Prior knowledge:
The protein is 24% helix and 29% strand. By secondary structure, it is α/β, with parallel strands linked by helices. The protein is globular. The chain starts with a strand and ends with a strand.
Amino acid sequence: MPVRYRGYEFEIPPGVYTPREDSLLLADHLEVPKGARVLDLGTGCGIQGIVASARAGGVVAADINPGAVRCAEENARLNGVENMTVVEGDLFDGIEGRFDLIAFNPPYLPTEPWEPKDVASGAWDGGMDGREVVDRFLEDVGDHLSGDGSLLLVQSSLNELPRTIDALREGSLSARIVAERAFFFERLYLLEARP
């Protein structure tokens, strides 16, 4: 069954992350400047990139999961999006230049080493403390933001939000919480960061 959001339709095969509260929190707050160059990291089914494409000058959507790359390409075609390029890679691998907006819903759930690992679990598996991917991302994000660009990053109460804010500030980015939603086992936060 397809997922529908803001007039867009997304077909999601097994092995690709289906948009949930975290993805929708991010999509609900995407404010794309007209003509912006947008990077949708961890694109999954392509929801952020496709939503951003309506105002963006161009979108690069990236995912480490080859199935997600194919899915995002197909959903872009299904929704008539022509200004989105989808690439396969780990975080910024193969990503060139700077962006006016970077949107990232990273894998942030803490997991145990004995839990099964596969390509699909990479969408939520954040390692022992839920920070494995986030910390690597934070090391390089400043090199990919334009001078007046912004980052929208989903975080959870399960993986030390203050650490993320401190790391952004250490990288010369101002950070603030722009939205949050509470659930029975966690609170989700949407952070905005700017140079």
